[in-house]
Amino acid sequence: MANRLEHASSRYLRQHAHQLVDWWSYSAEPFAEARRRDRPVMLSIGYAACHWCHVMSRESFDDPQVAAYLNEHFVSIKVDREQHPLVDDTYMLATQALTGAGGWPMTVFTLPDGRTFHAGTYFPPRQRGRVPSFMQVLTAVTEAYTQRREGVEQQAAALAEHLVELSRGQHQMMKFSADPATVQDGNQAEGQALEVAVHQWIKTTRSEGGFTPAPKFPPTQSLVVLWQQVLTHPEPGPLFDAAATTTEEIVLGGLQDHVGGGFARYCVDEHWAVPHFEKMIYDNAQLLRLLGLCQLACTQLAATGTDPARTQRATALAEACTRAAAGTATWLRDSMLTGQSGDRHRALAASRDADSLRDGQHVEGGAYTLTREEFDQAAAGLDSPLPEDLIRLAEVAEDPGHYCLSLRRMPRGSERETWQRLLQAVRELVAERPAPARDSKVVAGWNGLAIEALCQAAIVFENPGHRQLAEQVAHTVWEIHVAAATGTLARVSFENQAEQGNEGTLEDYAGMALGFAALALAEPSGPWALRRDRLLEQALSFIDEQGLARDTRELDPALAAQRGQQPAATALDDAVPAASSLLARALLLRAQHTMAVPDQDGAGPDNEERVDRDMQAAQALVGHSPVVAARFPSAVAGALEVQGLLQSPIQYLRISGGEPRQLGALRRLATVLGLPVGAGDEQQPAGPGNALRIYPCRHTTCQAPVADAAALLQTLRRG
């Protein structure tokens, strides 16, 4: 039996290389082998940081009896969902259609042509209530395939037709139209969509941090839109109350690793107290961007607000965001940067596991939780005890006697310093524990989101080290992932080797374009604008002759057998905003940047034409948002952010004069609002004595100047 996983670029696949299962990695070959042997295919889909994937691996795939049965009756494929997102998306749709639910590990049974006829998620080694054991499932599938083939074929055909219908609906939703009349007619509906979405979000944040019941996933993109509205709305008070309610839970509760920095994937309970401990790079990148926006919005509200209670709340939340952002950026640098100090190529790894070793056993959260005795030991050295209404120790249900440390409320006065001393004592206490394993594969699109967030954090928090990290990561992805001859982008790399034959999806191109765009704004003399443009040129080729944006250039046969045709790009946000929305924001930002600094990228006389194309494309890519926003606003929050930027009375700024302090305040505000800044010309002079003058502009027209960042905000709020 060949060991096909031993040298895989995916750590998730390498974790299964020792097993007796005759695993294949995902390609056309195992489906051909299934046709040759006339066997069904068993796809096991997961990812390296998935706790229950590890559990099922130990319970079932490590079992010689299970392995022998699989080898005789199936062709088994192990799939890293992060490596092959379209494979994951397709089989997740099939699993949800069959079972009404989804998740990982995902266990899918297909015909040799790739069409699904049975699916599930985690199966235990022994039957639990109504949940059959994995061996029971395998024997039942084998019996159905060998003795009731006609019924299996009919099931697969019916499911494939259902997925084709879903693809048709997606096509209709994402129908691309660059007709200026259509775009203009949609503006009113899109403005109303943003207003309706914000109203719904306000209603959902009135208890326990809002948005959803447990499990509590951070609604990061929805909060980005809310905080942008806090900054620009003429009556920001109710918007602030809503946005602050959930953001406080995120930065105070168990989602944040207060000791080691960074954020977990989600919280398992209603009160944001106990996390599911895996940490993903895409979550932390988006949350870092959110923290900068929240910090600046709170600082502005505290400086200009008239409600003392809101002012106090905003001040405390701004400070908490500053601490959380510092911890997250440090975690990215110290824990997630691949390679060694001094290496030329270093990028950000995909994830950290939820599990770690304790007394030789894998324990979920083992690196992060404390016993009561450990907490008392850490607190013993404090000069004064922290009040009980401040500290929260939440017991982990699956690990009795072990607790997650977080905050119930914002520290006040001397409590802040005492809390930091307690965290340092805990760090020293847990320093010798085994760290959770890291999946060191580099995913292009996720690194792009992190580059953008680090660039913005460098400006908002006035920390040039964040931009230096962003530049190092950006250089690495460009040199390792982008093919010099073709400009195509590899989705993943491992140990500085790009995975051949696995081109990036639209999400990868758009995410990296956003990262390069952020660097182009921060470092105008660098190569970043040209690199942004090369990736956007590739990304625009994902829009076909019918005007539909696609997630990939070509669908492989196994996926095409299920979906009937190349599906349109995903219209709805998931853990990351929809790729179409990311591309729309990247195109819009390029158009704004070109208007602000028309000569930077050498586009010359083609500038105006390209700006118009980019603006129309961005509008069309998010044109589906009014259809969805009324009922499911969080599903199109990425598109709604773009709609807000498109409708803004200001698209870019020109400035003349000014002192460093004023320019810094303006740059921070412009960064979080997505407003590129260019130098004024002879028609946009400075004020007397070189006083700062800010010229708000939209397309080719600039308004009368304002004197500072506060006045600029008032202009935005007046519309």
From TrEMBL:
It comes from the Bacteria. PANTHER family: SPERMATOGENESIS-ASSOCIATED PROTEIN 20. Gene3D superfamilies: Glutaredoxin (3.40.30.10). Residues 3-163 form the Spermatogenesis-associated protein 20-like TRX domain. This is Spermatogenesis-associated protein 20-like TRX domain-containing protein. One of its GO terms (biological process) is carbohydrate metabolic process. Pfam families: Thioredox_DsbH.
